[in-house]
Write a structure and sequence with these properties.
- 2 copies of one chain form a homodimer.
- With about 350 residues, chain A is α/β, with parallel strands linked by helices.
- Chain A is globular, with a radius of gyration of 20 Å.
- The termini of chain A are far apart.
- At the A-B interface, helix 1, helix 3, helix 8 and helix 9 of A face helix 1, helix 3, helix 8 and helix 9 of B.
Chain lengths: ~350, ~350
């Protein structure tokens, strides 16, 4: 690209094929269609919203609802185009060329935005069983004093969660920012939202894209001290969320009970699938998210593709692992059947 | 803010009060409610869309429709959360600390994103009558070789348009990028889209937020060579536009005839209002946009506020000017009446 700046000369634009048919288990989406209650509400929004007017740049109605849900102040919440945008803004507001600490493997956008912000990324490996290597993280914090430490829990793509005691060690080991990315926390046994209220250096990221089935709307949020929320807002684009998206998320956060059954089912399916895969001697890791991280031969992957079953390839340790999100009961049966056929 | 990077220590987060009542003439929005044909289409979208799935990150259906509309290739188009996001991405993809040329006054986000990207901004003043000072721009290009030159035409907030011959001089004076921001081109006598097809260094920005009344959806687009579109995509966040937004814009670009009458009316109202204001000896500037740039005493502004008529204050040349967008016929009558009362 003729006009690209030097540091991006070898970068390739992000592209992902839009898959709309088959069994789609590659994006950690909810497999369930939108709730009819949500659709009824959105039908009214379509009839009454002033789409000719800019959306509320402050997302006040939505932020108030999120604040109420978590019993925090409205100034402790900000909303973005997915949590991606908040992540990006956090980098832009804080980083010139400082160190940041990222676990490996973890959510790929940490590295992407680190690159864009000229951050120096330190990568902390997991233990061999893919549990958090807390000593490594603590040593790295001591050595590099990273401006931001990212803990994704449950971790994408491995599903591992960090223990509360370990997380507290990390938070107390640094005066700098600790991001706790809880994109999948609705599927986990424990949430760490309370730590954002207690520790001034903690920022929680959450999303409506996974458990609450709004991936198509693109809305995430951060919870932290007012000072940290102001920090993110410093570089966040104004008018970032459309009126419609704000309304959809507002309805969902006020009606989370509608989703409890789906979440419980996905957890049950996940645990059942985990056991079935273990029976097949597939290398699969414990997960508290809506996906499982596993290794199988490429021929299995190719057979899944033939059956139009889509899973995510994760290159890690010079091997191709697979991240497979939990589908409907029927989809999980099809998945297991296809894996068995190819073994 | 404790964790803000040094260059942003004195920055204040963007905030704008969400005004929903009164006569709103401060954001260059369309005063007309959404078309019933659009709402019918969107009602079907609500009923059928898979909101639990991520949107198409490539916005292919929408880009194909835009490409067809302008008779360019689909690779010559990219879509953003307003043209703001494309502007931001262009800066991030090209600028380390190079010069950029911005006219003054012009769209405020050029300066904002220049700051965020550490660009060195050169400001080109307008002539005293607020027509483009083309010699100044050409001299600045010669002197500073800016990586990007921004020409907003019709210019926000002044309404001035640049002459085609002058624009060609600028484009031919530099090998670097010339952005032609046509956010308001639907209200102007001439469009310069054709220059994006002819010149490899031209990028056109357009939006659905103004003439097409989709401010609440947040969608803009860029038209340029494939190389320049790839350049913007290098740093543009993936999955940036929600499914619903993509569908709304798709409907509009396929049904622009529905908006012709509104656009013609706004142009007529604009020209009538201009004449009326001149009769009142108000300093007002010719405009080819959906707004007028003017100067009046602060007591007029205060009276408008009392009447819940909202206009935009533009600080320029150590004076407070006002940018007033054209409303419905009734709103324009109210505006003129209120101005007369306060003179």
């Amino acid at each position: 690209m003729r006009y690209a700046k030097e540091s991006l000369k070898n970068q390739i634009p992000y592209h992902s094929k839009n898959i709309t048919e088959g069994i789609i288990l590659n994006a950690n989406e909810s497999p369930f269609p939108p709730k009819k209650e949500l659709l009824n509400y959105l039908s009214d929004v379509v009839k009454t919203a002033s789409f000719n007017r800019y959306p509320d740049t402050d997302c006040l109605k939505l932020r108030e609802a999120i604040a109420k849900f978590y019993q925090v102040g409205v100034d402790n919440v900000c909303c973005g185009v997915g949590s991606d945008q908040l992540l990006d803004s956090l980098f832009r507001s804080t980083i010139s060329n400082e160190y940041v600490l990222i676990c490996n493997p973890s959510f790929s956008m940490y590295s992407e935005y680190a690159k864009l912000s000229n951050a120096k990324a330190i990568y902390a490996p997991f233990n061999e069983d893919l549990t958090y290597n807390v000593d490594y993280i603590l040593d790295s914090i001591k050595k590099y004093d990273p401006k931001i430490t990212f803990i994704c829990t449950p971790n994408n793509p491995t599903g591992a969660t960090i223990k509360r005691a370990d997380l507290l060690k990390i938070i107390n080991a640094t005066d700098n920012i600790v991001v706790i990315d809880e994109a999948y926390a609705e599927f986990a046994d424990e949430s760490f939202i309370d730590l954002a209220k207690e520790y001034a250096n903690v920022i929680i990221f959450r999303t409506f894209s996974k458990a609450y089935g709004l991936a198509g709307m693109r809305v995430g949020y951060a919870i932290s001290s007012k000072d940290n929320i102001d920090l993110i807002n410093l570089t966040k684009a104004p008018y970032n969320l459309s009126t419609f998206t704000q309304e959809a998320a507002w309805f969902v956060i006020n009606n989370t009970d509608l989703y409890e059954n789906d979440i419980a089912n996905l957890k049950k399916y996940r645990d059942e699938l985990y056991l079935e895969l273990q029976k097949l001697n597939i290398e699969v890791y414990p997960s508290e998210a809506n996906f499982l991280f596993m290794y199988f031969d490429e021929k299995v992957y190719n057979h899944l593709l033939e059956k139009l079953i889509y899973v995510r390839v994760i290159k890690f340790n010079n091997k191709a692992y697979y991240r497979v999100n939990i589908g409907t009961a029927e989809e999980n049966v099809e998945l297991l059947k296809a894996i068995k056929e190819a073994l």
